Structure formats: structure tokens, C-alpha cells
Amino acid sequence: MKRSRSKTAIALTTVLVLLGSVCACKNDNGSTKSSETTTTTTTAAASAPETTAAPEDDKPEGSMYADFSKGASDQFEKSHGWCNGNPFNVTWKKTNVTFVDGKMQLMITEDPAAAATKVPYAGGEYRSLDFYGYGRYEVSMKAIKNDGVVSSYFTYTGPSDEQPWDEIDIEILGKDTTQVQFNFYRNGKGGHEYMYDLGFDASEDFHTYAFEWAEHSITWYVDGVEAYKVEGKPLEEPDKNGYTVDAKLPEHKSKIMANAWCGIGVDGWLKAFDASGIPLTAEYQWMSYTPLES
Hints:
This protein is mainly β. It is built from four helices and 18 strands. The chain has helices at residues 5-8, 12-19, 114-117, 267-270, and strands at residues 24-26, 32-34, 64-67, 76-78, 90-92, 97-100, 103-110, 121-128, 135-142, 149-157, 166-173, 179-185, 194-197, 207-214, 217-222, 225-231, 255-262, 280-291. The radius of gyration is 18 Å and the shape is globular. The two termini are 24 Å apart.
């Protein structure tokens, strides 16, 4: 959910027209969020995090581990210089991705260039250079607590990669950081939001969030405890987009991404953005990917 700026920043007008009919806003730069939500919740046991320690160094071949205690990762890049359009009310700026005190910070700030861009705020986004497939995706993060804001960790691929739009999301909405929203898209179709009660405030400390993406299922975890699962079954023949599972599960290798942004036009989902606390900062200790055993 990286490529050089010239490949990522494709013409927004084309993308937004293409995707304007769906209920989430996303372009081929990779960022997407839906205005839909669900009232279904599951409550986590109110206990201390199982662990926020970094994964072990001894990882299988094909694994990825970005340890932000060591600063920026050469496996990722900062998004810079474009806006995804509604409902994103930010322009991505590389200056809004920093590494301080052993952590990565994704910031939401006022944008000094707002007069030219007509977008008042700047946001931070970090994206992998490579694509990853079935496996376990994990992050240690601390979210922003603020109305109108999303702190995220997700996978994405789409038309700029000459693939359908597939995505798997972990999103913490700043209006209520005692919950996390899980979601996924297949060929640009979302609407699978699921709210999970954490049993803690995600803005107060680091916790480990994860999902395990397999051919026939996606399973989300919080601090090592299974939180939610969706499953599918094989199709007899691949459909016209090459999908082989019928539960609308994503199947295409994707980029690993994280971003922090404020919304516009989605007050029913995020609440109206409260800019009084700017700058706002989501923090990340590490991200990892471990392929499934074959």
C-alpha cells in the first residue's frame, strides 16, 4: 500500500474519477479510508500488553523487519508532494515523517503551502519499496487521540501497480482510541469494517497489532490475542481479475504502509477534525512481515 515519486504520484483527476463511485476514497498513491463503519464490537480482555518487544532477529527467508530504534529503514520511503483527495484533508510531506528517540513519528501539521494546494494540513505516510504476500504483518504503535484523525497500518496495491485495488487495514480512529477498526478491500470494494473493543486506550502506550493473511482467511490480532477473522473458500476457476477465493478476500501482493491523516466530509465516521492540538503525532517502534510457511 512503493515506488519513486514519479510512479506513485499519478494523475489524481483520473484516479478520483475512476474511484469516485465507491464509498471509500483512494488513489493509486496507496492511501484509502472508508466512510462506512459498523456497530459490531468484541471486547478484549482488560490486561497488560502481551508484548511490544521487537520480533526476534532470526526470521525466515523473505521476512521484513523495520526497527525504528535504528532510524529510517532502507526498505521504506516517505510519501511526499501529493494529496489523495477527499476524504483526506492533508498533503503528504516527507517532513512529517521523522525518527526521534528510537521511534518513527507520523505527524499532522498545518501546511505552509496551503494557499497553493488548497489543502490546509500536512500528514505523514511511510511505505515499503517492495511487495509482500501471504504472511503475518505486525506493528508496534501508539495512536493519536483527537477527533477527525486516523492512525493506521495496512497493506495496499492498485492500478498504479497494474493490479486491482487490494488492501488490508488496521485503523485507530482518534475519536475513540479504546477501539480499533479492521477492514479489507478486494478490487476496490470495501464495506467490511469491524470495530473491536481493545480494553485499553491505544493513545497511551505502545501495543502490538497484527494480521495474518492467508489464501483463504485474514485473522487480526491485538497483543498476540486473536481479535477477528474472515474466511473464504476456493473458486472452481479464477474470476476475470484473477481471484481464486470467493469471500472477497484480497489476493495480490501489496506494499506495507502506515499513515496519519485528518479527514474532511466524513464527520459521521471520524467526527469533525479538531485542529486545536496541532501538531499531532502517531508513534511507531517497529514493523515486520513474516511469510507463511509453505
